[in-house]
Specification:
Blueprint lengths: L5 E6 L5 H8 L5 E6 L3 H13 L1 H6 L10 H22 L3 E6 L4 H11 L4 E7 L3
Parallel strand pairs: 1-2, 3-4
GO cellular component, one term: cytoplasm
InterPro entries: TrpB-like_PALP_sf
Protein name: Threonine synthase
Length: 128
């Protein structure tokens, strides 16, 4: 979108070369930056920038990652679609197994259930 600059942070060694290319190839206004660290380091940098009043006065910032409701709403919609489709066919709540990652995806399922979507158990999976 004209007038919008996007900066994407991603942890070094945690995305494939193809994924790294995809992060920044959709417009001249998008810059993908590899961070020497883990996902949590990227998120800490974003939180620090969002909390910096001086920076916010110079450059209005917003986030589209898992700490933003704008990221969770689309994820909630696919949980709602899956659960409502399952409920219509089987008249039972849908139990979910969600990879944990940074837990944003699981939070979307929890929020959808809190809004009344027929979701039963939400089981978190990890490969640790």
């Amino acid at each position: 979108q004209p007038g919008v600059r996007v900066v994407v942070l991603y942890p070094e060694g945690r995305v494939s070369p193809r994924q790294a290319h995809q992060l920044g190839c959709f417009g001249d206004n998008i810059q993908a930056l590899r961070v020497a660290g883990a996902f949590d380091d990227c998120q800490a940098m974003v939180k620090q920038a969002l909390a910096d009043r001086e920076l916010q006065a110079q450059v209005p910032l917003s986030s589209a990652n898992s700490i933003s409701l704008g990221r969770l709403l689309p994820q909630m919609s696919y949980y709602a679609h899956a659960a409502l489709t399952h409920y219509a066919a089987h008249r039972r709540r849908l139990n979910l197994v969600v990879p944990t990652g940074n837990l944003g995806n699981a939070m979307a399922a929890v929020l959808a259930r809190a809004l009344g979507v027929p979701i039963g158990q939400i089981v978190l999976a990890t490969n640790a």
